[in-house]
Design goal:
The chain has a single domain, classed as Lysozyme. The chain starts with 10 loop residues before the first helix and ends in a 5-residue tail after the last helix. The chain contains 9 helices and no strands. It is mainly α. Helix 5 (112-123) packs across helix 9 and helix 7 (160-177) packs across helix 8. Residues 6-32 have low confidence and may be disordered.
Length: 214
């Protein structure tokens, strides 16, 4: 759908849709108001590394060492697609989104379940979501990142792969800054470092996307 994974309609209907998890029948946490990454000085070496991580425009092409890995991925894809059905997106849209999120998560060394939880909390799976402070897209990326490590084109933050790649690369950057501490990493991503509300919401959402379900 043109608006992302959420169906068209009123804000009220969108929020109601975002409170229910698809096929698994599990309740989603209420969609939180997106925060804002805070612009911080980047060393030239860090900026170069992040820019290089963003620059590759190649479409996601997952590679698997053997048929068992491929089959496991297909089972994950089917399960996650089923959970996204309540968003009323078509099968092709769901698969494209999930394949891209899986690819970008793995590329950044992150769990797909974590990124699904982050997208759920940040944007409610709305491709064109904009927060009151200007954060954009599925992963609610602040426009200054396009200037710091991208090509400067803020509109590209609404492109699915670009937005997911920015979100994954930024989260990986913060995770490295925080020496692997996910609580502070998530707080820094949301602009609320040290406060529990946002990390707790994302980690709760992540549990809903773990596969196989526990």
């Amino acid at each position: 759908m043109k608006g992302g994974l959420s169906p068209p309609g009123s804000r009220r209907r969108a929020l109601l849709a975002a409170t229910m998890l698809g096929g698994a029948g599990l309740a989603w946490p209420r969609v939180a108001s997106a925060g804002a990454q805070i612009e911080e000085p980047l060393a030239d070496a860090v900026r170069s590394v992040l820019s290089a991580a963003i620059a590759n425009r190649a479409p996601p092409k997952p590679a698997f060492a053997n048929i068992d890995e491929r089959l496991a991925h297909l089972r994950w894809l089917a399960a996650m697609s089923d959970r996204l059905r309540r968003q009323n997106a078509g099968l092709v849209t769901r698969v494209e989104f999930l394949e891209t999120l899986w690819y970008e998560s793995k590329r950044a060394g992150l769990e797909p379940a974590l990124m699904l939880g982050l997208v759920q909390v940040e944007s409610g799976f709305r491709k064109y979501a904009i927060s009151i402070v200007g954060a954009r897209g599925y992963t609610q990326v602040m426009p200054f990142w396009a200037r710091l490590i991208g090509d400067g084109d803020v509109a590209r933050l609404f492109h699915m792969q670009t937005n997911l790649r920015f979100g994954c690369v930024i989260l990986r950057h913060y995770l490295d800054l925080e020496n692997g501490d996910l609580f502070f990493t998530l707080g820094r991503y949301n602009g609320s470092r040290g406060r529990p509300e946002y990390p707790d919401a994302v980690l709760a959402a992540r549990r809903s996307w773990e596969y196989p379900s526990r």
